[in-house]
Each structure stands twice: as C-alpha cells, then as structure tokens.
Design goal:
Mean pLDDT: 88
Largest sheet: none
Oligomer: single chain
Number of strands: 0
Helix content: over 70%
Structural class: mainly alpha
C-alpha cells in the first residue's frame, strides 16, 4: 500500500504533465483558429492548470481509496486509468457546454485534448502507480 504522501506526489506529477500537455494542445488549436493573443500558450496552460485541478484531485482520491481497499500493481493502474477516462470525459463535456460559443470550431478538438492529456498524464506515471505489483 502506498502512503498518502506518495500518492499526492504521484498525482502532482500527473497533474503537471496533463495540464501542460492540454494547455499546449489547446494553444495549438487556438493558433490554428488564428487567435491574436500575445501570450496564447501561457493563458492556455494557466487555464488548463486551474480547471483541471478538481478532476485530478478526484482521480487521486479514487486511486487512494482503491489502494487502501487492497488494489495494487496493475489493478490499481486499471482503476486509475478508468477513473481518469471518466473524469476527463466529464471535464470535456463541461468544456463543450460552457465554451462552445467562445471557441467555435475548435471546441471539439480542444475538448478531445482534455481526454488525451489526462490519459497521457496517467500513462507517463504508470510505473510509479504499478510500483507495488505482487505476483498473483
């Protein structure tokens, strides 16, 4: 079983990777739409960090609860991956509903980048999440 602090540091890393990647992908989408902003990538990454925090905290909490109840190794990674996909999909739906008028044609690619970035963040820490794998 992982300690609470180890889980916090793992999901801090997941959050940094996922939010940075999402901000970068959203910045590219906004560039393709010809948005005229000076600090386009900075604003996209900043908003990505702010709006993704509750979802990453929820995935971290779900993973910690699964770990406390006895899941470890690959099973823990599966729980983390499934909860990440569900939370990222919910975040993408919220993004579509809230920002549809603001971003126009780029709303759908930007919402897909939420899911891609969330999954990439978890996959980048898969070895840390599966660390306590025991032979079955």
């Amino acid at each position: 079983m992982y300690s609470f602090f180890r889980m916090v540091f793992i999901f801090l890393g997941v959050w940094i990777v996922a939010a940075s990647l999402n901000g970068f992908l959203c910045g590219i989408c906004l560039l393709l739409e010809d948005r005229k902003m000076d600090d386009l990538f900075t604003v996209a990454i900043l908003f990505s960090f702010v709006f993704s925090l509750p979802f990453v905290a929820l995935v971290g909490l779900i993973t910690f609860i699964a770990n406390v109840t006895g899941k470890n190794g690959f099973k823990l990674f599966q729980v983390t991956l499934a909860s990440t996909f569900i939370c990222a999909s919910i975040a993408a739906i919220f993004f579509l509903i809230i920002f549809r008028r603001e971003f126009g044609n780029m709303t759908y690619p930007m919402s897909m980048s939420i899911i891609v970035a969330g999954m990439a963040g978890v996959f980048s820490f898969r070895n840390k999440i599966k660390f306590n794998e025991q032979a079955a």
